[in-house]
Amino acid sequence: MTKQVHxxxxxxxxxxxTVWSDPASGSQIEFSSFVHFAQTAERGKFDxxxxxxxxxxxxxxxxxxxxxxxxxxxxxxxxxxLGAVTDRLxxxxxxxxxxxxxxxVARQFxxxxxxxxxxxxxxxxTSWDAFTGENFRRGGFLPQDxxxxxxxxxxxxxxxxxxSWRGDEIAADQESGVFLRDPHPGAFAHxxxxxxxxxxxxxPRSPQGRPVVxxxxxxxxxxxxxxxxxxxxxxxHGTKEAGQAFYRDVKGRLGRYGRTPDQLLILPAAxxxxxxxxxxxxxxxxxxxxxxxxxxxxxxxxxQVWNRDxxxxxxxxxxxxxxxxxxxxxxxxxxxxxxxYRDPLATARQWRELAAEKGYSIRELMTEVQSRQSxxxxxQTVAAEIDDLVQSDASDGxxxxxxxxxxxxxxxxxxxxxxxxxxxxxxxxxxxxxxREHLGLAPLP
Length: 445
Fold this sequence. Notes:
Elements: E1 6-11, H1 31-43, E2 48-51, E3 59-60, E4 63-64, H2 75-83, E5 90-96, H3 102-115, E6 120-125, H4 130-133, H5 144-162, E7 168-172, E8 179-183, E9 187-191, E10 196-200, E11 212-216, H6 220-229, E12 232-235, H7 240-252, E13 265-270, E14 272-274, H8 278-292, H9 295-306, E15 332-333, H10 344-358, H11 362-370, E16 375-377, H12 379-391, E17 397-400, H13 410-422, H14 435-438
Parallel strand pairs: 1-2, 1-17, 2-5, 5-6, 6-11, 11-12, 12-13, 13-17, 14-16
Antiparallel strand pairs: 3-4, 3-15, 7-8, 9-10
Helix pairs in contact: 2-3, 3-5, 5-6, 9-11, 12-13
């Protein structure tokens, strides 16, 4: 059976993907950028737009990490505003479960789902560091197992709030004879190790019942959380073989929760470069990677593994001859990427071997390991690769991350989407109105 490809668009910024030096690079905060991006995604019949979010400005060597966006408007505000300038596009926001509270998040998402006629989605994430926690009254942080336990409880609590409204019952007004809807908000009460709340939820049941739930995390705890509770999971696996292994692993966990494989979508993030020919695209991709990893950026990246101030090193020179510092304190704060390098000494050893083999400088090495595009080629090549990965169960689709905003998505929508439609693997138009329908998920009872 031929699978349908799912496509979404990530508004970039909380990374080094964006090429700031390009004349076409626009504002990351002006509403016009969000409007252009969202309307392009909707023109391409994408499932949804995705916003990431950080709860504190990142720092490195005690200074603001200025290679990322250093400002981003509130997620709910942006998504609600985009709901007014789009009709079908799903709107997904990253909202933290470590430092927020269930009642507030449930009310905001229920409101967003009403305002957008059923297009809201929640990417549930956790925070791992005390640095971010300093922005909040509780402060501190939770160990990984407790973070995911809080996330599971947080999600269950919000579901109780969403479901507390018992629907509308039809009642007749005896004097006028007019039939009136009689909503029945229900009381809620939830008490556990993390939350002790009770009251009445003020927002009626929304068009989707509750937002579509996304999860991003590749750890054992993250995979299990997705299998138990999520409708879709983001992944970072860039090769066919790694994607297939992840796909089998996560979908294989669903049965223990009474779920079937079609109840969870696997959607890796993917960058792209489209050219008239494969050769032209490869040349353009090389130039984009060099723009994404400047000399300064390269030093900041390698510092995250070495855990040292390496600003005195020449980015066009050899790798540091000293080893990484291993310890609890780190030169980079607020960057989840630091957590990727669980064994910095082993990473440094691998990078030195690769640099020696290829003759790489620091910048050349960082360009190689940090900024490789997922899809590079002519429109025909990119469409064929995407189709192959989906049909071979390496993914159910992709969340596309362009290197420019607001116009970076346009080449894909204009040149690749029509070819996927010709292949019969991507919709020619929206068939439903809610995000659950776009994703092929069954309606909630």
